[in-house]
Write a structure and sequence with these properties.
alpha/beta; about 15% strand; Rossmann fold; Helix Hairpins; binds 1,4-dihydronicotinamide adenine dinucleotide; 8 strands; 8-stranded mixed sheet
Length: about 300
């Protein structure tokens, strides 16, 4: 029975919830009984400035539909303070949705140290800071749902987004490790790569496409991954405009060189090394070692 899934008694932190995707996630949780910490620094698209208005507005929206919410204006880099808000106001935390983010698009040869460091700080370090502050609470209670936000730019690579792509795929690495650490504690960690119209993408996508990419079409997947009935963990999902799909690693069967071999042998057998016919789908680190050790 999955009609009317709710989060009564659950405390949910959504970072960057003052606008775009985060706002929709927060509204969905608030409408379904969760007590929500609406975090947002209220800065600009490239990380400039700050304001309490964005988070306050979303808290008001949640309250106006009868939900419970509190605002927090800290940067995700001060993750402990965001979790403190949850603990002080609602007494616990059950779900963390790491969503906050900014862009500083620039081609690699023009990228400054600041363009690089700022993006790593907000996306990767910020996601780590919030999650690490919540982690002991989730471990102690033997329950937790963590949703990370990556990007197709990180998964596939994109021109002008080296700083963003690296940070976003760093988040996936963090998620993969935390999914393993959380496995025995009923803490599930999943990652989404959304596509949605927001101030982040309004200059990137054409108008007709933006009209189809409603940010509220991403939230139902976040909601399901955050729900106690969902057993999924260590998943990576592409989601947008009503479409959602799971991604996984694929490895060729590979080629095994016997005895001594040289780079000339590598060149000679390269087609076999990269041939995906009958490919495998490794899921845990041991699958890597097992492949190397396999005979014949
Ligand atoms: P958005 O710019 O509308 O929302 C991001 C929110 O994060 C803003 O409200 C902003 O004030 C907040 N924020 C920024 N830095 C913060 C900080 N240090 N601490 C707390 N809050 C902070 O952008 P959008 O599109 O809603 O993006 C949400 C997430 O989804 C981001 O992580 C983004 O990288 C990711 N994403 C979005 C895609 C899209 O198509 N919109 C594509 C792929 C990934």
């Amino acid at each position: 029975m999955t009609d009317g899934l709710r989060y009564d008694g659950r405390v949910v932190i959504v970072t960057g919830a003052g606008g775009g995707l985060g706002r929709q996630h927060a509204l969905m949780f608030g409408a379904r009984g969760a007590r929500v910490v609406v975090n947002d620094l209220g800065g600009g698209r490239t990380g400039d400035g700050s304001s309490s208005a964005a988070a306050d507005r979303v808290v008001e929206e949640i309250r106006s539909i009868g939900g419970e919410a509190v605002a927090n204006y800290d940067s995700v880099t001060d993750g402990a303070r965001i979790v403190e808000t949850a603990l002080e106001v609602f007494g616990t935390v059950d779900v963390v949705v790491n969503n906050a983010g900014i862009l500083r698009d620039v081609s690699f040869h023009k990228m400054t140290d600041q363009d690089w460091t700022l993006l790593q700080n907000i996306h990767l370090n910020g996601t780590c800071a919030v999650t690490q502050a919540a982690w002991p609470v989730l471990r102690d209670k033997g329950y937790g749902r963590v949703i990370m936000t990556t990007s197709a730019a990180g998964i596939y690579g994109n021109f002008g987004q080296a700083n963003y792509a690296a940070a976003k795929l760093g988040i996936l690495g963090l998620a993969n490790a935390l999914a393993e650490e959380g496995r025995t504690k009923n803490i599930h960690v999943n990652t989404i790569a959304p596509i949605a119209a927001s101030r982040m993408t309004e200059t990137v996508f054409p108008k007709e496409l933006l009209d189809r990419l409603r940010p509220e079409a991403v939230s139902p997947l976040v909601g399901w991954l955050a729900h106690e009935l969902c057993t999924e963990t260590k998943g990576l999902f592409e989601v947008g405009a009503g479409y959602m799909a799971k991604l996984r690693w694929e490895r060729t069967n590979g080629y095994r060189f016997g005895g001594d071999f040289t780079l000339d042998d590598v060149a000679r057998h390269w087609d076999a090394v990269v041939d995906f016919t009958g490919a495998e789908h490794p899921v845990v680190m041991h699958d890597s070692l097992a492949a190397v050790q396999r005979e014949g």
